[in-house]
Amino acid sequence: MQTAAPVLAGLDTEPPQAPVLVLGLGNILMMDEGVGVAVVENLHTRYRLPPDVELLDGGTSGMALLDDLRLREALIVVDAVRTGRPPGTLVVLKDDAVPAFFRSRISPHQLALSDVLAVLALTGEAPANITVIGVEPLSLETHLGLSDLVMARVEELTTQVIATLDALGYAVTTQVEGQTP
Amino acid sequence: MAERITVDPMTRIEGHLRVDCEVDGGKVVKAWSSGQMWRGIELILQGRDARDAWIFTQRICGVCTTVHAIASVRAVENALQMEVPLNAQYIRNMLITAHSIHDHIVHFYHLSALDWVDIVSALSADPKKASELAQSLSDWRLNSEQHFRQIQNKLKTFVESGQLGVFASGYWGHPAMKLPPEVNLMAVAHYFQALDYQRTANKIVAILGSKTPHIQNLAVGGVTNTINLSSQSTLTLERLYYVKSLIDQLGDFVRQVYMVDVAAIGAMYADWTAYGAGITNYLSVPDLPLDTRGTRFELPGGYIRNADLSTFKPISSYGDTYFEDGVKESVKHAWYQGGKGALHPYDGETIPEYTDFQDDDKYSWVKAPTFYDERAQVGPLANVLTMVAAGHEPTTRNLNTVLELAGKVAGTQIPVEALHSTIGRHAARAVRTGVLHEALANQWQLLMDNIGKGDYDTFNQPEFPKDEVRGFGYHEAPRGVLSHWTVIRDGKISNYQAVVPSTWNASPRDERDQPGPYEASLLDNPIADPEKPLEVLRTIHSFDPCLACAVHMVDTRQQEIVRLQAVGAQCGVTF
Q1: Has residue A135 been placed in a domain?
Q2: Of B146, B191, B435, B469, which has the highest C-beta tally within 10 A?
Q3: Which letter does DSSP use for residue B143 in this model?
Q4: Quick one: closest CA in B to A108, which residue?
């Protein structure tokens, strides 16, 4: 299919899409709802990622993420999830468990995200591999910042993202010295 | 006997809207619209630096991040009686229009077209006939038989792979689906193409806003884009001409595809011009300021009562007290402590008082706004009608284009009155997109001309007095009138209220028990099958519902992703 090719070729300065996207979702105004964004910020400030891995603070966006999600080899979603387990529990969903995640109401965002993935399924541009890394929230009050309980899990969630990237063949080895989030 | 149906949540996209309908004799006789989340941005902002408010407000919604940022800086600037440099106005105006065009294209093709277009039926279309039909409507370059055949094959692969279920709300083969297979195929082909053009629009937002989602280039007093025609790290001539090329590409799609599809599909669903009018008081605000103070605008706005364009009363400046004094919000039917009657946003309170869903009492987290104590519909339809009433030539011209084409397809003349309807809201959105595209091109030219005069200013420094100041900022957002209201003391926020478009449209009954626009629009809608109330979805989706900013989530665990209950049948249907 033809695309809307830029008339002035060469001026389109966007870099080509990296094969892997780590997408932090959540509303930072609602305490633990924003944990996905916090993990992405942690990755951004404390780790050096290979050029094939892109980080994105997706906020609570839905269709606005259409272009960011298309044509990725792998998508790692970090989000607050509700499965009925105790607050602070880490939840990792892979492969067959992922479609169920997007069809149930575990995270407040998958309604939006499932629309994006539906469109990309139709166009044949959906990510080949999706992993969801989540944590059970303690509180979703209107408040800026995570609860202490979930804040204490941010590093573990980050490690989980790094392990997932490692399994995909993208090593996150270098920790940037002298910087803290 | 009356049957009750509950659709929860209603929005495919962000937000949680529950709609209850009482159905009797095959049509809706009573309706309730309930926002299932709780809003509390004002609680976060109290005590914060007023210059930072926009950073937080653009996080209250995932769909309309840009619009809350814009309304917020305008509110603070209004409180300070500030001037904003012309370049900053033009850059903001381009951001606003590009964002809105993006939003409207995505809404029609990717979020609501499948209420009207049957994907499965497109498989049985004759691509040659579909191409002939499309070419009879438009000169668009991608209406060839070969292209339509490719799309059909792609679609076939998709359906055969068994993934159709990802379109959870599709009612394939529903009796209310009436388009011939060829029209369905044409629409599906354009659905694919629209993906490329929404990207084109979004690129403009990303270039000017530095980032999307969540633009980074705003500031109270202007924008942070520095204009330097030779430095690579700023807004250069090269980049501006690239933006122009994107604007031109976008125009072809808007005029030759989007406006044409809406006219043609609308004409084939002409029966839907009889349903969904609801509240016909229309409120919109002027936008795209052309001067530093916001006294002249490219797009007019105002108020129309009872569907009568001759009642039009303009809102003409940022300081217009006609708008400022007219807005109130009632919590009589919302889960907040009340008893003080409807309150002006400066005096607004947000103290939760959850009861449970009570049909005749409180049943929503959304407050009910009124304009001079009347219910008002907001959104593209309100915007288009007020602009026509104001004598805005581009709007009248674009409206005539769509109505004439629809008339040609329907074989009968379509009057402006047909717009007061479910299908009319889609038509108005397409007309508005045509108008916005012209405005976007014009704002680009104004920016270039102003830079050409040697004016590179993009920012005026705000200064906050010790005393209390208050202000409001409005913006005609993709879903309608958005206003932010703020009270500031010594640079810090002491009160903040956002009256969002979905608050106007999705709100419950008001102080006088008058239904809100969604509720009123559902009355008399036909319901062919209470277990598959596609007709309810059509009318609600025509408003482009998005509740993420109207209210915020409390808890999600209790409910299925989508729950549809036909009481009596007790049959849960996932859609």
Answers
A1: yes
A2: B435
A3: -
A4: B556
